Amino acid sequence: MATTQHPSTKQDILQHLLQQGQATAQELAEVLRISPQAIRRHLKDLEEEELIEYQAIQGGHGGTEPLMGRPKHVYHLSRKGRHQFPDNHAQFAVSLLDTLQETVGSEQVSSILRKQWQRKAQEYRDRLASGTLQERVAKLVELRRAEGYMAQWYPLDENDDGCDRFMMTENNCAISDVAESFPSVCGHELEMFASLLPDCKVERTTWIVGGEHRCGYLIQPKNSLS
Questions:
Q1: What is the pTM of this model?
Q2: 31-40 pLDDT tens trace
Q3: Which parts form a coiled-coil structure per UniProt (predicted)?
Q4: Would you call 19 helix, strand, or coil by DSSP?
Q5: Where do the H-state alpha helices sit in the chain?
């Protein structure tokens, strides 16, 4: 009983979300060994403090088609919540890029950032291998989730040619500090997705840096556009 009122419980919740990326109230209750009711009280407090956010998900996890039924809340750290933990990596990266820009100019920095995303694309390409478009999209989402992007995917309506379209969403930007100061990285990221799926058109539909709550990408085969 005393555990539910332990002053470190909220910190334990934040720590778990930092390590795991996301969790439901039930999962947190099981891990921290306190009642779901107590967990929900703490989650409500953390939400009011703007340290966590949640996404309502119907059915299974992001790689499955949504099912009917009551949606469950999946919690993750907000940007403010992440800042509760010591981490100078983002600040250092932005400072380094600022210094580079002052030293070599914006065009050269953009070239360096593009090269970085080309390297990242090669890393992804080696792991995506071959497969159907759905399999490749699912694998890409898996890789992005592992890097903290809170990615999901779902199929859209099938067109007359029988070619599926897919939507990939990212509810968290793992490089938000850099992206806000150097939004060109988002353009390079989009180029990377297009290079990984050369038989598709990849279009950004929503953008966190633009003030929206997530980044969204419409993926559709080029042969369906002709």
A1: 0.61
A2: 999 999 999 9
A3: none
A4: helix
A5: 9-20, 25-32, 36-48, 79-82, 89-104, 106-128, 133-146, 176-181, 184-196
159-184 pLDDT tens trace: 544 558 999 999 888 888 888 889 88
What is the CATH code of the structural domain delimited by 89-224? Answer: 3.30.1380.20
Q: For the chain, give every domain's residue range.
A: 2-82, 89-224
pLDDT tens, residue by residue, 121-146: 999 998 887 889 999 999 999 999 88
- We find that the CATH architecture of domain 2-82 is Orthogonal Bundle (1.10)
Q: Residue 144 corresponds to which tokens in the numbers above?
A: 């992005």
Which strands sit side by side in the sheet containing 23-24, from one edge to the other? 23-24, 72-77, 52-57
The whole-angstrom distance between residue 147's C-alpha and the CA centroid of its chain comes to 8
Cβ 195 vs Cβ 109: under 8 Å = no
